[in-house]
């Protein structure tokens, strides 16, 4: 399974796309654990008090897992996983 990482998360992991050992039938949480095991430096940025930090968005197929089954959602073939940190906008044109 692949994770797409954005902003500083990609910098920390060393790539924007990271393949992990997770397959259909596993959960989003399993895939996240595999990502954090493969790239331990991400753990401090993503996990807070034992759970995903409120400011980190975990997406499955473009939708926040918070709106569905959370990290317990079962992965299916073709699922796209992504992690987004908080992002602020750029300057307004003059």
TrEMBL record:
Note the superkingdom of the native organism. Archaea
Record InterPro entries: Beta-grasp_dom_sf, MoaD_arc-typ, Mopterin_synth/thiamin_S_b, SAMP1_3, Sulfur_Carrier/Prot_Modifier, ThiS/MoaD-like
Q: Which Pfam families match?
A: ThiS (PF02597)
SUPFAM superfamilies in the record: MoaD/ThiS (SSF54285)
**Could you tell me what this protein is called?**
MoaD/ThiS family protein
Origin species, per record, is Halorubrum ejinorense
